[in-house]
Structures are given as C-alpha cells and as structure tokens.
Amino acid sequence: MTLLEGIRANNFIIFGRVGMDLYPDPPGTATEDATTMTADMGGSSANIAAGIVKLGGQASLVTRVSDDSVGRFCLNKLAHYGVDSTYVSSVGGEYRNSLAVYESRVAGHQSVIYRNGAADFQMDQSDVTAVDYSRFGALITAGTVFAAEPSRSATFDAFALAKKAGLPVIFDVDYRPYSWPSPGVAADVLSRAAAACDMIVGNDEEFGFMAGDMSKGLDKARALAATTAKIVIYKMGEKGAVTFADGAEIRTGIFPVEALKPTGAGDSFMAGLMTGLAADMPLKDAILRGSACASVTVSKPGCAPAMPDTQTLTAFLDQHPGPSSV
Asked: Which helix (H) or strand (E) element contains residue 296?
C-alpha cells in the first residue's frame, strides 16, 4: 500500500498519549489567579485522533492510562470525541496520566506539564501486538512515545508490524525536551524513527535538533525526503511551511487569525492534513487545509474542543480572505 493509498482509507491507528488538560476560565486568566478551571482531553496523539474524527475520519488510539479517576476521565473523553479506545489499556501502581495546565492567552502564556511516572510510557510489546493492523490504512505517531522505555521499543515494534501489514507510517516529530533523559538520546532516537517513516511532519526547531544544528534543519528535511520519506513537511510558524515531495518543494502560507493561545496548532494541522489527503485533495491544498485547522484551533480555548469539525472548517474557509503569501 502506498502512502497516499493508506491515507485515503481515512482510518488511522494512532500511537501516543491521552491526558487531561486544565485551563483557567475565562480566557486571559493567569493560572495563579484562577478560581475556575475547565477540564478536557489533551495529549498530542489523542488530539490528532479527535481532530480526524471531527473531520469525518476514523481513528483508534493505542496507549495506556492510569487505573484511576483521571484515566477513566480520559477514556470517557475519547468516547465523547468518537475515538476508538479498543487498544487503550489501564496500568495501576504509581503510574499517572499526563496533566497539562495552560492558559488561553498569548502574552505571558504559561504551560505546565506533569509527566512524572507517566502511564503512557508503560505501553509495551503486548499492546502493539494486540492491534489488528489489517483494519487500518495508516499508522500515525507523535514523537513523545519514543522518550522512554518500554514505550520506545514497543513503538519501533509497531512500525515493523505496520509495515509488514502494508501500512505506511506517519511521524509527527513533536519533540518535548522535558520528556527525555537527555538531548543526545532524543536526537539519536528521533532521527532513527524519522528514517523509518514514509511521511514526517515537524517544525524548524525539531528538524534542526535532529540535524544537530538549528541552521541545518531545512537540509535535514530535504535529505529525508530524498532518501527515505515520501513526504516531509517543514513547518516555520508564521512563515508557513515547506513541503518536500517527489523532488518538488511546495511553499505554503498560514491563515492569519487573532490567536487566543499557542497550543494545539500542530495536532490540528495533522488532522486537517490527513483528512484532506484522504479526500484526495492535491498535496498543497491538503497542507493549506491543515493550516486552516491550526488557525481555528489557536483562536479558541482548549485543544480537542477547539479543533474544527467539517462545518466549522468550511465556514472558516468561506469567511477568511485566504492564506498569507510566501
């Protein structure tokens, strides 16, 4: 199965964490001044899954959650967003779900992430071998799964099982320094993961990090597209993105909005991109669809709840003057 054939199935098996998000209400409130918090689903992989389902696709998550009320909250939220949790298992003891506390403001924005004893890092080979890969069109993972064992080795095993079943592998680099034992380990492992993938999405800092030099990130992305990956997307924030595919370089802009907060953009971008390609859009159009989803998401509170459904995205595109020029 080719990369695009797999994506067109619009049915994804996604590896990585689901967590609880807390954010002060009303928007603009600093965490230390908060008296009311809104709780919802978070975690990059779970957000991507929710975004895909909102836009008409299917998504199943593979991870572990803590065997407690917070873990059950996460399972309830996956059900709420229509994400299949067949392959989500619970782990007891002192392992806990990830927790993110962040603010709905740009100026002075604070995000505090709790990842000690993370339940999702306990995903092991038994979790990945339980998956019926023949049910799906493509595998997606965010880079956080590689930050610790046994999750790291299990995900590399999942790559092998997916490829054996004919599924393409899609990698959102998603480098979070606080999750890793050292930058050196992260650079080595993420580079090995990227070399095993059919499609890679990351920002300029992430590619620069893998290259060992921030000034060489673009060259790293270009080299991956020329050797192992079919499509590589190099995101540059407000400057848009450069995509390498089939020997061509595609430059795309963003959809300027008044951002309420900076979180959730990358996850929403991936959801919009995947469902756009699943609908057989040209690659450039699908990338712009992802950019539009990111803009919608940063303009509203929360991550999963802020991600657009098809009706919201259509209305946004109809009303927006269009992407910035590059």
From this structure: helix 283-298
Residues 173 and 186: their CA atoms lie apart, in Å, by: 11
The secondary structure of 42-99 as a DSSP string is E-HHHHHHHHHHHTT-EEEEEEEEESSHHHHHHHHHHHHTT-EEEEEEEE-TT-B--E
The whole model's pTM is what? 0.98
From CA 181, how far away is CA 224, in angstroms rounded? 25
Q: Distance (Å, rounded) from C-alpha 175 to C-alpha 189?
A: 11
On whether the CB atoms of residues 39 and 22 are closer than 8 A, the answer is yes
Give φ, ψ of 263 to 5 degrees. Answer: -90, 150
pLDDT in tens, 294-314: 999 999 999 999 999 999 999
In whole angstroms, give the CA distance from residue 142 to residue 120: 12
- 310 in Cβ contact with 56 (< 8 Å): yes
Q: Which domains does the chain have, with CATH numbers?
A: 10-317 (3.40.1190.20)
pLDDT digits (tens, 9 = 90+) for 125-184: 999 999 999 999 999 999 999 999 999 999 999 999 999 999 999 999 999 998 999 999
